[in-house]
Specification:
The chain is of the alpha/beta class and about 350 residues long. The protein has 14 helices and eight strands. About 55% of the residues lie in helices and about 10% in strands. Strands 1-8-5-4-2-3 form a six-stranded parallel beta sheet, with helices on both faces. The protein has a two-stranded antiparallel sheet with strand order 6-7. Strand 2, helix 2 and strand 3 form a beta-alpha-beta unit. Helix 5 packs antiparallel against helix 6, helix 8 packs antiparallel against helix 9 and helix 13 packs across helix 14. The radius of gyration is 19 Å and the shape is globular.
Length: about 350
């Protein structure tokens, strides 16, 4: 056994019902005096509640999915105009992503308060979209200094969106098993993430107002993101980034649709990783385990239902082949990826 593993420097607070106190403590640790709060209009009331008492100089609600460059520029301008010294993001992946876009240029520290299972808060990955192309990169400046997790903040996320967001987190786990920088630590974190998400998400669907399922899902989402942050972006995420940038498809739902197809594509060529995933699912095979979970959750099935046009299949496949990581377990060819994308568009069974 031989590997090199980097562990990012980040504090994590996990306590249900304690977001306001935890956030205040983290802002105090940073010595911040001019807080810029980033939260979409849908999270405005929640953000006001958890940031009450902080020295807020600006509340920024111009949040757009996939972080268009022009949206990032407006947020950077707002931070500069108010001389902000810390960014507090309250929301899902798009909100965290916008805070990262500001930090990428300014170096301002971020304290993230997640309200979904996106996981962006635990990674140094940033993403910006321009001219229908989503560009991603890694930079330590965008890694939030601290995360304040409070499962009670996810109660406003409807069960349907919780499913999509949770399957996005599950995709982080699966990709981490064979991504370019995978190692045994990533794989251990990812396997525990699968276990927690499989335990939590059905409980969220069964009882959306209950906290035990949401706590498990939030815990699993964090583990999945930490694994993904270290292992890097694999075929699944490259495919979803192409789809998101090209057609502005909803982020979490796109991941939910693509995941079973990439798993079925790679699993036969990564036997050890497949066995670990199967064990985490508690099933005979990883593909069967994921299928069983998706059935319980009534997960999204097709890219067509998300608004992707059929004539885009080949263009997507070509872009995925160009972006695919060199070390993918199975050879990536235009024919095979075209079939994968077409099956995902139709909602056909993964094969």
């Amino acid at each position: 056994m031989q590997f090199v593993h980097d562990t990012p420097a980040q504090r994590v607070r996990f306590a249900t019902g304690a977001a306001r106190e935890g956030l205040a403590s983290e802002v105090a640790v940073l010595g911040a005096r001019r807080v810029m709060v980033i939260a979409g209009t849908g999270e405005r009331e929640l953000a006001d509640r958890v940031t009450a008492g902080l020295p807020v100089v600006h509340r920024h609600d111009d949040v757009v999915m996939h972080v268009p460059v022009e949206v990032a520029e407006r947020a950077r301008g707002a931070a500069a105009a108010r001389d902000a010294d810390v960014l507090v993001s309250v929301g899902g992946g798009s909100t965290t992503g916008l805070a990262k876009a500001v930090a990428l240029r300014t170096g301002l520290p971020i304290v993230a308060v997640p309200t979904t299972y996106a996981g962006s808060e635990a990674t140094a990955v940033w993403g910006l979209t321009e001219d229908s192309v989503k560009t991603t990169g890694t930079d330590v400046r965008v890694l939030p200094r601290a995360i304040v997790y409070d499962a009670a903040l996810t109660l406003s996320l409807p069960a349907e969106l919780s499913v999509a967001s949770g399957l996005n987190a599950l995709a982080h786990c699966v990709d981490s098993m064979w991504a370019p920088r995978t190692d045994p630590i990533n794989q251990a974190l990812a396997a525990e993430g699968v276990r927690a998400l499989q335990a939590g998400l059905p409980l969220v669907v069964k009882n959306p107002d209950g906290l035990p399922g949401r706590e498990q899902a939030l815990y699993g989402a964090y583990l999945s993101a930490v694994a993904f942050a270290s292992a890097g972006s694999g075929l699944h995420h490259k495919t979803c980034h192409v789809l998101g940038g090209m057609f502005n498809l909803p982020h979490a739902q796109t991941h939910a649709v693509i995941l079973p197809h990439v798993l079925a594509f790679n699993a036969p060529f990564a036997v050890e990783a497949e066995q670990r995933l199967a064990a985490a699912f508690g099933s005979r095979t990883a593909v069967e385990g994921l299928a069983g979970l998706r059935d319980k959750l009534a997960a999204p099935r097709s890219l067509r239902d998300l608004g992707m046009p059929q004539e885009g299949v080949v263009a997507v496949a070509e872009a995925v082949v160009a972006a695919a990581p060199a070390g993918n377990p199975r050879p990536v060819t235009l024919d095979s990826i075209t079939e994968l994308v077409r099956n995902a568009w139709e909602g056909a069974e993964p094969r």
